[in-house]
Every structure is written in C-alpha cells, then in structure tokens.
Amino acid sequence: MRLLMLTLLPALVIAGLCLWSYITGMTEPVLQPINKSYSGYSIVPQKVPGLKLEQFTFKGWDNEDVLAVIASKDGEESSRQLSVIGDLTVNRADRLGVIDYALICVDWDHGIRSSLPLAESLTAAGITCVLWEPRGTNNRRPYCTHGLKESADVPLLINELIRRSGKDSPVIVGVGQGYGAGLMLQAAAGEPRLQGLISIDAFASLRESLMRTMPNSPLTLATLWLMDLRMNSSVGFECFDVAPVESAARIDRNTPVLVVNLVQDNPISTLDDAVTIYKQLPCDQRDLWTLHTGADAPHATTRSISTIRRKHNRDSAVEARLIKDEDSAATAIVHWLNDTFITALDTPHVHVPARPLLTSDCQL
Q: Does domain 47-205+242-287+324-348+358-363 fall into CATH 3.40.50.1820?
C-alpha cells in the first residue's frame, strides 16, 4: 500500500500541474485578449488621414494614467469620411452640433487604434470623438476584466472632459463595439452623464460567450469552474461577474439606446445576445438593427425575430431594422444620432420605470 501511494502521489501531482497548465492556457486569452492587427505599432499613430488627434491623460479607476485622444475632422478626408459626407449631402443631418463628445471604445488592447474607424465616420459628420486606452498608459494594467473594472474609467474621463471644455453639462454619447460595447453598457448603468448609447456587437454575458467557444461536453462546466478559479486568483473576478445584459436593465429609461448586430459568425457576440440585451433595456427609446441576409426578402427593411419566454412558455417577437452591410451602418448611426438621440434629449424626462424588466429566465 505504501509503495502504491508513493507511486500514485507523484502521478497525481504531475496530473494536477498539467491540468492547471491547461486551464491557464485556456484562461490567458480571456485575461489578455491581444489584438494582433496592431502588434508592433505605436499606441497613437503619428498621422491619420482626415483626423486631428489631441493627446491627453487622465487618472483611471486604479489611479493609473490612462492615455486618451480627442479626434476631430482635419485635412483631406479619408475614404470612410467621404462615404459619410456623400450621404449627408443628400440626406442632411443638421442637428448633430448639439453633441459635444462621442466616447468610443472598441478593444481592450490597442484601444485608440481600433476605435479610429468609428471616429473617422463620426467626425465626418462634425462630431468630436474621444478614444482611450483601457489598458492604461504603457500597458500598466496587465489583465482585462471585460469592462467590469474598466467601465469605472468612464465617469473619470467625463470629469476630465468637463474640466477641459469648461462646460458643466456637455452632451455625451457612448459608442462601443465588441469589448467596448460591453464596457459601455456597464458604464451607462451607473453614469447618467452618458445621455445616449450605441452598442455594436456586445456580448450578453462572459459566461455564456465562453461556453459557446467550448465543446459541448459534461466537462464544460468543470472547465469553466477551474477557469473562474484561475481568473479569481489573478484578478479577483469570475465570468459570472461580467454580464452587460444585467447592466442594460439598470440603464435609465430616459437614455436612448441603439443595439446593433453586425457579426454573423462569431460565438462571442451573437444576434441572440443583441436581442437579449435589447429586451432587457427599460428605455423608452430603444432600437435594434441587424444585417440583411439571404434569408430575408430582397427588399425587406425589417425582420420579426421570435423569442420564447420560458417562464410563461409563450412566444414573443421583436422587430429589428435591417441594414444593407457594415459600410452602410456608419451613415445609419449618424442619422440615428441626428433623429432619435437628439429628439430624445428634447423630450421631458420621466422618473418611473417604463416597463417591467424581464427576469433572468427570459432567454432566446
């Protein structure tokens, strides 16, 4: 028996170390999602066609310096800007001057560079954009919390913009895509100075997104549990803690929100996620857009998306506006800001819930 124990013990230790190494390998891409498109490039480009970038720093939630830029239209227009300008010569949007800043966030890694395409489109319409590095200056935040902690930068960034602009109540809209959309939803739940929100390809919950990337097997839940242990030991959070869909339910009913689904084959953020987030919003003005696909009629402009409320075991449906392609999304967003967002600013605010919030058992 003693010989057996002496034989088994090293084997168990080796197996445990191998398992922990495997879990670490699974977890690192979650804690450090690196955008390889910009590897080797500086954080802020020296020159961007059609844009002027003004750098500044502010103190983030962890008292680390966070690098940010104010982007405005300048010089010869880029191709993205020309596309928006061409549309606006035909379909005018004359009220956008009301907006002081659009806060744009896309990636945790290379946050400024990845946000530039959206900034190009919005600055073409005369909107001043603000981009920042969620990782902090010189990448001093080694781990990503998918907006759970990084969303606390948003109020501090707004404080700095108020100080710089001299305006007590600037009109600010948040624009997020992917990681940035999840961050913005979490920020908007507790920041009333974000007066509007555009959420593009947000994930509903980190747990569900991770499960969709794993093989469907009895070991999936055990793997997630071990990944939670790894995340907790490194950063102090678990995948259960990150749920933008729950934050969506706490956004003020007076805040207009546009939910956009562009990705069609990414398990991290799906159309189901977009619909679930949309249904949780208590806002009086909420809109849902998705791409026109071959399954839609050629000239269809909307799609009725069926959902199921498990608690009551009945079907319900939401109407989604169909947009032609990703290129047309930018100009459509500009018109949503001009027509829907600014109209909502002029509407008297109310202080009671717009509708009962859906419970967690409401799934697609």
A: yes
